[in-house]
Amino acid sequence: MREVVILGSTGSIGRQALEIIAAHPEKLRVIAITSAGTHPELVIAQAQAFNVGIIGVVENADVIRAGLPGVKVIDGRFASTEIASIECDVVLNAITGSIGLGPTLAALDSGNILALANKESLVAGGELVMAKSRPHQIIPVDSEHSAIWQCAMAGKREEISKLILTASGGPFVDRTDLSSVSVADALKHPTWSMGNVVTINSATLVNKGLEIIEAHYLFSMPYTSIDAVIHRQSIVHSMVEFCDGSTIAQASPPNMKGAIAYALNFPHRFMAATAPIDWSSVHNWSFEPIDSSRFPAVALARHCGELGGAMPAIFNAANESAVAAFFAGKIAFNDIVSIVEHVTKHLEESALSPLRDLADVSAIEDNAKALTHEYLTRLAH
Fold first, then answer.
1. Of the four listed, 202, 209, 228, 342, which is most buried by Cβ atoms within 10 Å?
2. Which pLDDT does position 195 carry in this prediction?
């Protein structure tokens, strides 16, 4: 029986993880969950359904305590970090955003296996995270990195020549005029059902840029050996090219349950974790290069990653602020990546020193978000 802690239990990844655990009660048991607490009724229902003894929330702690007498409720902005330190078999970090970095470091410090869905942990603090992790302590949950993890087992590390991430291209892969894109338009992803922020990041292809940085740290590959291609069908989740010219791909329908289940039960697989491909039907899978002139976020992320230091954290922080402004109706969709580019260029010369600790990351993120806010204010006038 594996004891599991889920950080971000009310999000898309967290909810799917609970569905997997419910299907395998003889193998997995939830001992703690955390969330922002903005949906207290869902937190209460999850705790009751899985007999969870410890809950962490930022908001609505009193409501949750009243609904769950006898359950320990930890509240405040560091609740997930505290709960990530609980001794268990697996911590699933499904938090969205760089606020997931603290819990990631806490889980690693405690010696827990970390099933990592929070890509921003590696983007904002990749050097810190990898310095703390022992071999196989981090199991990737992002479908692309889970795919690479699985494909890489086909050969030795030194035999890998390239990692190829796939991207659906989002809702605007064929749309040339993006000047009038609404929030509703950007949230209509053609193949995936995800949280709002991740869906916007997929529409700009910022998400693919973040994943390139994540792959660099997870697999210790130089940026020159990490590529990304458009694969509209979202069936091939990623590929690994080997030195002999062979390319190994991992394919399954576009949902996260396979990757989540594999991370929770690694190195074993659950029966029927996700539906297999229907080979009785005709399939046409296409692959095409990313048009960097239409989707400049990928090249910008790669540039920030190659510069290193605080640049990936700045890229991510500026994007988080710009996406929030887009949701609030303060900027146009086209402005998101332009704002990120402005902030990263402005801070480039002063941000190349290595990040020493979590405080350094927080400081540089605050600086980037302040500069983004200042730029947004100027745009508004």
1. 209
2. 79
Residue stretches of the chain with pLDDT short of 50: none
Sign of the Cα torsion 322, 323, 329, 335 reads positive
Per-residue pLDDT reduced to its tens digit, 157-195: 999 999 999 999 888 888 888 888 888 888 888 877 777
* Res 381: pLDDT: 62
What sections of 27-180 are H helices per DSSP?
40-50, 61-67, 79-84, 101-109, 119-132, 143-152
What confidence score (pLDDT) does residue 295 get?
A: 92
- pLDDT, tens digit, for every residue of 13-22? 999 999 999 9
91, 5 Cβ separation under 8 angstroms: yes
CB 275 within 8 A of CB 253: yes
Domains of the chain: 2-140 (3.40.50.720), 308-381 (1.10.1740.10)
Q: Quick one: which of 265, 260, 316 has its CA closest to 9?
A: 260
> CA-CA distance, 378 to 324, in Å (whole number)?
16
Q: Give the three-state DSSP class for 57.
A: strand
Secondary structure letter of residue 353 according to DSSP: S
CA distances from 353 to 128, 212, 308 (A): 13, 21, 8
Instruction: Please count the CA atoms within 13 angstroms of the CA of 54 that sit on its side-chain side.
Output: 19
Closest to 3 (Cα-Cα) out of 260, 264, 258 = 264
Name, in order, each residue with C-beta under 8 angstroms of 2's C-beta and a sequence gap of 6 or more. 27, 28, 29, 89, 90, 264, 265
Residue whose C-alpha is closest to residue 361's, from 83, 97, 137: 97
What per-residue confidence (pLDDT) applies to 90? 98
Q: Residue 29: which H helix or E strand, with range?
A: strand 28-35
Residue 197: the pLDDT is 87
